[in-house]
Automatic annotation (TrEMBL), chain A:
Belongs to the binding-protein-dependent transport system permease family. Its main location: membrane. Residues 95-298 form the ABC transmembrane type-1 domain. The keyword RNA-binding does not apply. It comes from the Bacteria. Pfam families: BPD_transp_1 (PF00528), BPD_transp_1_N (PF19300). This is ABC transporter permease. SUPFAM superfamilies: MetI-like (SSF161098). One of its GO terms (biological process) is transmembrane transport. InterPro entries: BPD_transp_1_N (IPR045621), MetI-like (IPR000515), MetI-like_sf (IPR035906).
UniProtKB/TrEMBL annotation, chain B:
It holds the Pfam family OppC_N. InterPro entries: BP-dependent_transpt_permease, MetI-like, MetI-like_sf, OppC_N. The chain crosses the membrane at residues 41-59, 108-131, 143-163, 169-187, 218-239, 276-297. Residues 104-294 form the ABC transmembrane type-1 domain. It is found in: Cell membrane. Belongs to the binding-protein-dependent transport system permease family. This is ABC transporter permease. Gene3D superfamilies: MetI-like. Keywords: Cell membrane, Membrane, Transmembrane, Transmembrane helix, Transport. It is a multi-pass membrane protein. GO terms for biological process: transmembrane transport.
UniProtKB/TrEMBL annotation, chain C:
It comes from Actinomadura syzygii. Belongs to the ABC transporter superfamily. One of its GO terms (biological process) is peptide transport. InterPro entries: AAA+_ATPase, ABC_Ni/Peptide_Import, ABC_transporter-like_ATP-bd, ABC_transporter-like_CS, Oligopep_ABC_C, P-loop_NTPase. Keywords: ATP-binding, Cell membrane, Membrane, Nucleotide-binding, Transport. Gene3D superfamilies: P-loop containing nucleotide triphosphate hydrolases. GO terms for molecular function: ATP binding; ATP hydrolysis activity. This is ABC transporter ATP-binding protein. Its main location: membrane. PROSITE patterns: ABC_TRANSPORTER_1, ABC_TRANSPORTER_2.
Length: 308, 306, 346
C-alpha cells in the first residue's frame, strides 16, 4: 500500500506542474497584452497596467514568470486586482462558504446517487429503473443555472420552503437548496454509474459464489456486489469534485452565497481578470489535491490495483 | 489525473460496448445494432428532434422571415407570449420566436464542431499511442493527464477570461482544448485491447503494413465505444457552452444563441419567466436527444444488455 | 471440524436416513432469451449415495452446468425457469421450498466448487474474510474462533503457511492455490453433497491431478457424495463411480464407470470414447464426432443426436428414444441401445 501511495504521489507531481503551467500559459502567453486582455474592453489607466505588468513579472521569460507566480501562489499570494487590492484578502473569509456548499453537494450526490443507482440496478428494466434513467438524463440535459433559477423560483419564492438567497439561516438551511442544485448533475452520473456497475456485478461469478454460500440476499448485494460496484463510483466522485468547483461559481452566483464562486462570478461581470485567474487556479489546485486523496482511497478499495 | 478505469463524461458502458467488438462480429455488430435501434421509439424520437433542430440551424428562413436582431422595438421589450409574438419579446424588444430560431445555429454548430475535432484528435492520436506504445504513448498519456486535471468550467472560465475574442471560433477552440481527453483515453484503451487480438497478429504475420492493420483491423473494432461517447459529448458541449455564456465568458452580444439568451434572462427570471423557458426548452430538448441517442446506440451495441 | 455437525442439524428438517442422499428426477430448465425459449435441461435424472461420485459428462452447452445450478438453487430466475422435476435431499423436496428455507441448504448441506476460482472469488476481500464469512454468518462464530477454523481449513486443503496467507487477496495466489481456497470454502460447513463444476478445467495438467486427488481424499474423509461435472473423460476415469452422459440437456446414457468404458450403449458415448487418445490403443486412429452440438433453442426432432449419429435411421428423426436398461444399472436413450451395447468395442 505504501509503495502504491508513493507512486501515486510521484505521478501527481507532473500533473500539478503541467496543469498549472497550462493555465498560466493560456492566460499570460497568448498574443497581445495579457493585462489588457484580462480587463476586456474596460478602460484601465496606463499606470495601473504598468504596475500590473511588473507585478506579474511579464518582462521575464515565460517559465520564470510561471515560477514566480506559482511561488507566490503556494505562499498565499494570488496577485492583485486593478485597484491594487490583494486577491487573497478578497477571498479570505469566503472559503468556509464554498467548502460548506461543496461538501453539502458532495454528500448529497454520494448518498442519494448511490441509493438511486442501487435501486435502479436491482430492478433493471422495470419501472424504478426507467424512472431513474429518465430523471437523470433530464437533469444532465438541463444546464445547471436553468435548474438553479427554477429551483429558486419554486422552492424559494413560490413555496417558501427554503431561503431564496444568502446565508442568513446558516448551515444547513441556507445550503440545502444550493447544495441540491449543485450536486444534481453529479448525482445523475453517480446514480447511472452505480446502476450499470451494480447490474454488471450482480452477474459476476463471485456473486454466484456468495449465493452458493447460502448468504442472505441483503448480504450478497450489500457486501459483495455493492462493494465492488462502488469502486468506479469513488473514482468518479473524485473527478466530479472539479465539476463541483466549477458549478460553485454558477450556484453561488444564483443563490448569492458569499463564497469564492460568487467572487469569481462578480469578477467576471466586472472584468476583474486577475481575480478570476487567481481564484480559479486555487480551485484547480484544490481539485487536484482532492483527486489525489481519492486516488489513494481507490488503492484501499481495490486491492488489485496496489500490485499492478 | 489518475488512470483510473472511469474517465468518461458518461462513464458507464463504454467498456461494456468494447466487449462487443471482435473481428468476425464486426459487420454483424453494426447490423445487429441497427436492427435493434429500428425497434426503439427513443431512437426515432431523438432522431426526429435532432432533424428538426438541424433544419432550424441550416435553413432558419423556413421557420421565420426575419433575420437575427431584426425588427426589434425597444419599446416592447420583455413582453409575454401573445398572438403577435408567439414566444413574447426579449430585452431589446426583438421577437423571441425569431431569436430562438436563430439561436439554433451557433449552439448546434459549436456542439458538433467541438465534438468532431475532439473525436478526430482522439481517434488519430489514441490509435497511434495505443498501437505503438512506448515513448509516444507515455507522452500522450501524460499530456492527457495534464489536460484532464483541468475541470471543464474552471478551465474554460480561466482561459476565456484572458482570451482575445469570444466568437464562435474562440469558443470552439477552447472547448476542444478541454474536451479531447475523455475520448482519447477510451480510444487508447480500446486499441490496446484490440492490438494483441489473434486476428491482428494473424494480419501481421501475413505481412500487412502497420497502416493497413490499423485502418482495416484495429480501428473498426475499437471505435464503437468512442462513437457512443462522442454522441453523448455533443450534448455535454452544448450544456457547457450555455454555462459559459451564462457566466459571461462565452459568446457575446450581438451573437444569438440559446446559451446567450438564457444568460441574459437571468436577471429577469422572476417577473419574465418566458425568457428562460423558451430557449431552455429548446436547448434541453436538443441535449436530451443527443443523450438518449447515445444511450440507445450504446444499448444496441452491447449485446450483453439485450 | 467435526464438532460442528451437532449444531448443523438444528436449522434443517430431520433427514430420512433410508432415502437416497440426492435424487434428481426429470429436471427441466428453460431459459427465456430475447423472446426465445431455450431448452437447457430436458429431463435429467440421477441419484447419488453417500460417499459416491457421480460424474456428469457432456460437451459445453449440454446443460450440465445449468442443471448443477438448478440443484444448488442459484439459477437467476428469470431468465431461467425450472419447469418441472424434483430435487430431493434425503427425501426432502428442495424445489418447492421458499427462498429463506432453501438458503439454509446452500453451503451447509449442498456446496459447490466453481470452474474459475479467479472470478468466482470476490477480488476485493481477503481469502480469510471469504472463508470466515461462512463461519461467522452461517454458524455465528466469533472473530477468534472463525479465524482458527479458517486456518485449520486452509491447512486441510494443503495450502502452505496458511495462517500467514489468510490476509492475502485472491489475485495473490496461483491458480491451483485459488482452487484449493474454493474447495476449502465449499467444505467449510461440511456439506453432505459437493457439486464440483469443471473444477480443474482452468488449471495446468499437473495441478489438475493434484486437485482431483485432493477432492477424492476429502470426499473419503468426510463421506460426502460428489457430483463431478466435466467435459473431460480423462478427469472422470480415475474418480467416478457412476457416469451420466448428457447430450442436449438430457441423459444419453448412464452406467457404472467401468461398464460405460467397457461397453457403451449409446452411439454418442461410443463416439466420445473413440475421440480421445488412449494408451492401450496406441497408434489407432482418433475418430472425431462429426457435426456440432445442436442449438438448444432449436432442438432436432426425435433423438437429439440423430443428425450426427453414424447409425441413425428413419425412426430416430421421428421418435424420441426413451431411456432403456441394457444391463442392471446401465441405461441408454437410443433406439438401438441393445445392439450398440452388444457390439464389439471399437
Amino acid at each position: 500500500m505504501w509503495r502504491y501511495a508513493l507512486r501515486r504521489l510521484l505521478q501527481a507531481v507532473p500533473v500539478f506542474i503541467g496543469t498549472t503551467l497550462l493555465i498560466y500559459a493560456m492566460v499570460f502567453a497568448l498574443p497581445g497584452d495579457p493585462i489588457q486582455a484580462l480587463a476586456g474592453d474596460k478602460p484601465v489607466p496606463e499606470n495601473v497596467l504598468q504596475t500590473l505588468r511588473e507585478r506579474y513579472n511579464l518582462n521575464d521569460p515565460l517559465l520564470i514568470q510561471y515560477g514566480k507566480y506559482m511561488w507566490g501562489l503556494v505562499h498565499g499570494d494570488l496577485g492583485e486586482n486593478y485597484t491594487g487590492q490583494s486577491v487573497s484578502e478578497m477571498l479570505g473569509g469566503r472559503w468556509t462558504v464554498t467548502a460548506r456548499l461543496a461538501l453539502t453537494a458532495w454528500i448529497f450526490e454520494m448518498v442519494v446517487g448511490i441509493a438511486l443507482g442501487a435501486w435502479a440496478g436491482l430492478r433493471r428494466g422495470r419501472l424504478a429503473d426507467t424512472l431513474v434513467l429518465g430523471g437523470t438524463t433530464l437533469v444532465i440535459a438541463v444546464p445547471v443555472f436553468v435548474l438553479g433559477y427554477t429551483a429558486q423560483l419554486l422552492f424559494g419564492l413560490h413555496w417558501k420552503i427554503f431561503p431564496t438567497a444568502g446565508t442568513d439561516d446558516g448551515w444547513p438551511m441556507s445550503y440545502i437548496l444550493p447544495g441540491i442544485v449543485l450536486g444534481s448533475l453529479g448525482l445523475s452520473y453517480v446514480a447511472r454509474l452505480t446502476r450499470t456497475s451494480l447490474a454488471e456485478n450482480l452477474r459476476a461469478d463471485y456473486v454466484r459464489t456468495a449465493n452458493a454460500k447460502g448468504l442472505s440476499r441483503t448480504r450478497v448485494v450489500g457486501r459483495h456486489a455493492l462493494r465492488n460496484s462502488l469502486i468506479p463510483v469513488v473514482t468518479y466522485l473524485g473527478v466530479d469534485f472539479g465539476n463541483l468547483m466549477g458549478g460553485a461559481i454558477v450556484t453561488e452566483g444564483i443563490f448569492n452565497l458569499p463564497g469564492i464562486g460568487q467572487q469569481v462570478f462578480t469578477s467576471i461581470q466586472l472584468k476583474e481578470g486577475p481575480v478570476v485567474v487567481g481564484a480559479v487556479t486555487v480551485l484547480v489546485l484544490i481539485f487536484l489535491l482532492v483527486n489525489l486523496v481519492v486516488d489513494l482511497l481507490y488503492g484501499v478499495l481495490d486491492p488489485r490495483i496496489r500490485y499492478e | 489525473m489518475s488512470e483510473g478505469p472511469v474517465t468518461a463524461l458518461e462513464p458507464d458502458g463504454a467498456a461494456a460496448v468494447a466487449v462487443a467488438g471482435g473481428e468476425i462480429g464486426r459487420a454483424s455488430l453494426w447490423d445487429d445494432a441497427w436492427r435493434d435501434l429500428r425497434r426503439r421509439w427513443v431512437f426515432w424520437g431523438s432522431a426526429a428532434v435532432l432533424a428538426l433542430v438541424t433544419l432550424m440551424a441550416a435553413v432558419p428562413r423556413l421557420f421565420t422571415g426575419k433575420g437575427p436582431n431584426e425588427g426589434c422595438d425597444p419599446n416592447v421589450s420583455k413582453l409575454g407570449p401573445s398572438g403577435a409574438h408567439w414566444f413574447g419579446t426579449d430585452l431589446a424588444g426583438c421577437d423571441y420566436y425569431v431569436q430562438v430560431v436563430h439561436g439554433a445555429r451557433p449552439t448546434l454548430l459549436i456542439g458538433v464542431a467541438v465534438t468532431l475535432v475532439a473525436l478526430l484528435i482522439a481517434v488519430v492520436f489514441g490509435t497511434l499511442a495505443g498501437y505503438y506504445g512506448g515513448v509516444a504513448d507515455a507522452l500522450i498519456a501524460r499530456l492527457t493527464d495534464v489536460f484532464f486535471g483541468l475541470p471543464f468550467v474552471l478551465g474554460a472560465t480561466v482561459i476565456l477570461v484572458a482570451f482575445p475574442g469570444h466568437g464562435m471560433w474562440a469558443m470552439t477552440l477552447v472547448l476542444v482544448l478541454l474536451g479531447w481527453t475523455t475520448m482519447i483515453r477510451i480510444m487508447r484503451g480500446q486499441v490496446i485491447s484490440v492490438r494483441d487480438a489473434d486476428y491482428v497478429q494473424a494480419a501481421r504475420l501475413l505481412g500487412a503494413s502497420d497502416r493497413r492493420i490499423m485502418a482495416r483491423h484495429v480501428l473498426p473494432n475499437a471505435i464503437a465505444p468512442v462513437i457512443v461517447v462522442a454522441t453523448l459529448n455533443v450534448g455535454h458541449v452544448i450544456v457547457g457552452e450555455a454555462t459559459l455564456d451564462f457566466l459571461g465568458v462565452g459568446l457575446q452580444y450581438p451573437e444569438v444563441s440559446w446559451g446567450l439568451q438564457l444568460g441574459q434572462a437571468k436577471d429577469f427570471v422572476v417577473d419574465h419567466p418566458h425568457l428562460l423557458i423558451f430557449p431552455g426548452v429548446f436547448l434541453s430538448a436538443t441535449v436530451l436527444s443527443f443523450l438518449m441517442l447515445g444511450d440507445a446506440v450504446r444499448d444496441a451495441l452491447d449485446p450483453k444488455l439485450r | 471440524m467435526t464438532e460442528a455437525t451437532g449444531a448443523k442439524g438444528s436449522t434443517v428438517p430431520a433427514p430420512r436416513p433410508d432415502a437416497p442422499l440426492l435424487e434428481v428426477d426429470d429436471l427441466h430448465v428453460r431459459f427465456r432469451v430475447r423472446g426465445q425459449d431455450v431448452h437447457a435441461v430436458n429431463g435429467l435424472s440421477y441419484t447419488l449415495d453417500e460417499g459416491e461420485t457421480v460424474a456428469i459428462l457432456g460437451e459445453s452447452g449440454s446443460g450440465k452446468s445449468v442443471a448443477a445450478q438448478a440443484v444448488m438453487g442459484i439459477l437467476d430466475v428469470p431468465p431461467a425457469r425450472i419447469e418441472r422435476g424434483s430435487v430431493k435431499l434425503r427425501g426432502t423436496e428442495l424445489l418447492g421450498l421458499p427462498e429463506r428455507r432453501r438458503r439454509e441448504y446452500r453451503g451447509d448441506r449442498v456446496a459447490m466448487v466453481f470452474q474459475d476460482a479467479l472470478t468466482a472469488l470476490n477480488p476485493v476481500f481477503t481469502v480469510g474474510d471469504q472463508i470466515r464469512e461462512l463461519y461467522r454468518v452461517r454458524r455465528g462464530l466469533g472473530r477468534k474462533e472463525s479465524k482458527a477454523r479458517a486456518v485449520e481449513l486452509m491447512e486441510r486443503v494443503r495450502i502452505p503457511s496458511a495462517a500467514r496467507r489468510l490476509g492475502d487477496h485472491p489475485h495473490q495466489f496461483s491458480g491451483g492455490m485459488r482452487q484449493r481456497i474454493m474447495i476449502a470454502m465449499a467444505l467449510a460447513l461440511e456439506p453432505d453433497v459437493l457439486i464440483a463444476d469443471e473444477p480443474t478445467t482452468a488449471l495446468d495438467v499437473t495441478v489438475q491431478a493434484q486437485i482431483m486427488r485432493l477432492l477424492a481424499d476429502l470426499q473419503d474423509e468426510l463421506r460426502m457424495g460428489m457430483v463431478l461435472i466435466t467435459h473431460d473423460l480423462g478427469v472422470v476415469a480415475g474418480v467416478a463411480d457412476r457416469i451420466v452422459v448428457m447430450y442436449a440437456g438430457s441423459v444419453a446414457e448412464q452406467a457404472p464407470a467401468r461398464a460405460l468404458y467397457a461397453r457403451p450403449a449409446h452411439p454418442y458415448t461410443r463416439g466420445l470414447l473413440a475421440s480421445v487418445p488412449r494408451l492401450d490403443r496406441r497408434g489407432g486412429p482418433l475418430l472425431p464426432i462429426g457435426g456440432a452440438p445442436p442449438d438448444p433453442a432449436a432442438l432436432p426432432s426425435g433423438c437429439p443426436f440423430h443428425p450426427r449419429c453414424p447409425r441413425a435411421e428413419a425412426v430416430c428423426a421421428a421418435e424420441r428414444p426413451p431411456l432403456v436398461a441394457v444391463a442392471p444399472g446401465h441405461d441408454a436413450a437410443c433406439h438401438f441401445a441393445a445392439e450398440v451395447h452388444g457390439a464389439e468395442p471399437e
